[in-house]
Specification:
Largest sheet: 5 strands, parallel
Mean pLDDT: 94
Shape: elongated
Strand order of the largest sheet: 2-1-6-5-7
Order of helices and strands: EHHEEEHEHEHEHHEEHHH
Number of helices: 10
Strand content: 15-25%
């Protein structure tokens, strides 16, 4: 997977991607990341990339020319996708992350200031994406969230792709509780089933805890889970939880 990040602050992207799992994925050649700075394509004095909005108003608006030039400088593969980061976009989700991981190349355009000249979004074939209903200073943090999330779903990034199959939001459920040594800490003990060596019982306990945790913490996700075609085992676990609550 290759990521092109069009950003006014390439150091923010590059610094984050030089640590931890993303760095290992880069070093292994699983992903590659290139930053493109629109300032390098500005024909104005001081490499200016923004100006005051027509019609008046506060703030500065990002100009067409440097962003179009930056985008058009990229030689894109046939299996590529372009994302425009904006609070007005579709909210990024685990399902979108899985879909994006199927592409060979993703180009992400980061905004800043008061946003893009409308002609940028009208004339670049892209999908508008947001990471939530709040406003940030720029698109770099959302871009890093997407790079990190998508990379996890690419074979080799996590060592074993199975590690991602039990993450929160898979099957519309939150992840089950995790424990490690010591067995007892301040009177709190690891559930005995996890030390039993009985893998089928451990799997059942974990699934039940996923359902319990989702029901308690995310009613919206739990309703989505219930709308799925549930296995007989899941139905049994849901009934057990209902009995426990009563």
């Amino acid at each position: 997977m290759h990521f092109n990040i069009i950003t006014l602050f390439p150091e923010l992207i590059e610094n984050y991607c030089n640590f931890s799992i993303i760095k290992r994925a880069k070093d292994s050649g699983i992903i590659t990341i290139k930053t493109i700075n629109p300032r390098d394509f500005s024909s104005l004095k001081h490499k200016k990339v923004d100006d005051t909005p027509y019609g008046g108003g506060a703030g500065m608006v990002l100009m067409c020319e440097p962003f179009f030039a930056a985008f058009e400088s990229i030689t894109k593969s046939d299996n590529s996708k372009t994302l425009l980061l904006t609070p007005q976009g579709k909210t990024f989700s685990h399902q979108m992350s899985l879909e994006f991981a199927k592409f060979d190349e993703i180009t992400i355009i980061c905004g800043h200031y008061e946003g893009f000249d409308e002609r940028i979004r009208q004339n670049i074939n892209c999908e508008e994406v947001s990471i939530g209903d709040f406003v940030l200073t720029g698109g770099e943090l959302p871009a890093l969230c997407i790079i990190d999330s998508v990379s996890r779903n690419i074979e080799g990034t996590l060592g074993k792709i199975e590690s991602a199959h039990f993450d929160s939001f898979c099957d519309d459920l939150l992840e089950y509780p995790q424990y490690t040594k010591p067995y007892e800490f301040r009177g709190m003990k690891v559930p005995d089933v996890l030390l039993s060596g009985n893998h089928s019982q451990i799997a059942l306990w974990r699934r039940k805890e996923q359902i319990r945790r989702t029901k308690e913490r995310r009613a919206d996700l739990f309703q989505k889970f219930l709308s799925r075609e549930l296995s007989n085992q899941d139905k049994i676990l849901i009934n057990e939880l209902s009995k426990e609550e009563n």
